[in-house]
């Protein structure tokens, strides 16, 4: 059984993204530049599977001599690495074969399933067309199945559950929240623990205790000035190794039984895997979309394929370029803050455009957030200038609306490019959007919203 893909990932990237949590190099030296072209589940009854560039999953393998023999065969077929279930018996035959063949042996941590690993590896090497991933995205953003998991945990505990990140943002919640107290309902509706309740928990040292403990902790009811009922909570930190990913919170009206405490602890490992998959999937999709978007903005031989994978083929397109005023903070952390802020704005821009345009792609490239929006062909059947102008104006209105909602129009500008009739015209639209952006930051946008020669708008 195999899952083939285009060679978009390297062994170094796999170890970087999944290492220290799911995978550990236990033998041999990993070639970080080795390309991963496919994931193969080793089958002793089938030796015809192509292994070139393969990351091989050695399910059920434990005998050192069998492992050493497989390493020799993998080297002959130019595989990239072998993954075994921890603990790996890295005895002398295995170490010798790994060093002699150059095929590293990686260990899959206990508690993680082969299915989870295969799914995450599939995301890392970006199989297939980005545009065909509707089942794993919501509003253009990657999503996991944490909601189903929250419902399963709620059933085990017989209590409504939320799964939260380190910043007390709700990333998933179960049903039956109406059985909880008003504080929980407010938290779920706002997808964030209200500040007044979070402050109480901090003052009581709840978060410090939560992140120190390996076991669930009991949390007393929060106080409110409205005289509304408030129930106790049972909370458990979600960990991946030494890293705290978030926490699980159950609103309870009586203490959990020992069996339910064990069920909660067992569930935390699975929640960690899903949170890691969610995070890895989001990062991978962002990188992939940025690569594809950069390709179509620059033009060249791969532009047509990239346009198809972003599902922008057969659409006229407009390029939008968004940027903030130059940062003046010289602190080293300022650059990191700027990167995070640009990604936050790009995510918001993607959601905003997704509500207006059937096809759009947004990514951070350098210090600029670029968006390419597709205009439905049925709305633009001719090459007449008025229709191009209407599409340009509509994009400008959408961008202006976004700036208004963002509440930062004094610091952020958007350049709107000309309408591109096909993929070949997108680099020209990008150049015009960049020019409009320069005009805006030169202070000319208010007096010259259009530059006639380029027919671009600066907002």
Explain what the structure shows.
The chain is α+β, with helices and mostly antiparallel strands. It folds into 3 domains: 2-128, HprK N-terminal domain-like (Udp-n-acetylmuramoylalanyl-d-glutamate--2,6- Diaminopimelate Ligase, Chain: A, domain 1, 3-Layer(aba) Sandwich), CATH 3.40.1390.20; 141-277, Beta-Lactamase (2-Layer Sandwich), CATH 3.30.450; 299-458, Alpha-Beta Plaits, CATH 3.30.70.270. The chain contains 13 helices and 19 strands. It has helices at 11-18, 64-76, 92-101, 114-124, 146-157, 182-190, 195-203, 206-212, 258-298, 303-309, 332-354, 385-406, 426-441, and strands spanning 2-10, 23-27, 35-41, 54-57, 81-85, 105-108, 137-138, 141-142, 161-165, 170-173, 217-219, 233-240, 243-251, 316-324, 359-365, 368-375, 412-420, 450-451, 456-458. The strands form 4 sheets. It has a 6-stranded mixed beta sheet. Strand 7 and strand 8 form a beta hairpin. Helix 4 runs parallel beside helix 9 (258-298) and helix 5 packs antiparallel against helix 9 (258-298). It is flat. Residues 1-7, 126-143, 327-334, 378-387 and 444-456 have low confidence and may be disordered.
Class of the largest domain in CATH?
A: Alpha Beta
The count of strands amounts to 19
SS-based class: alpha+beta
Which regions have little confidence, pLDDT < 50, spanning 5+ residues?
1-7, 126-143, 327-334, 378-387, 444-456
Superfamily at the CATH H level of the largest domain? Reverse transcriptase/Diguanylate cyclase domain
| Main pleated sheet | 6 strands, mixed
Amino-to-carboxy terminus distance:
53 Å
Task: Please state the oligomeric state of the protein chains shown.
Answer: single chain
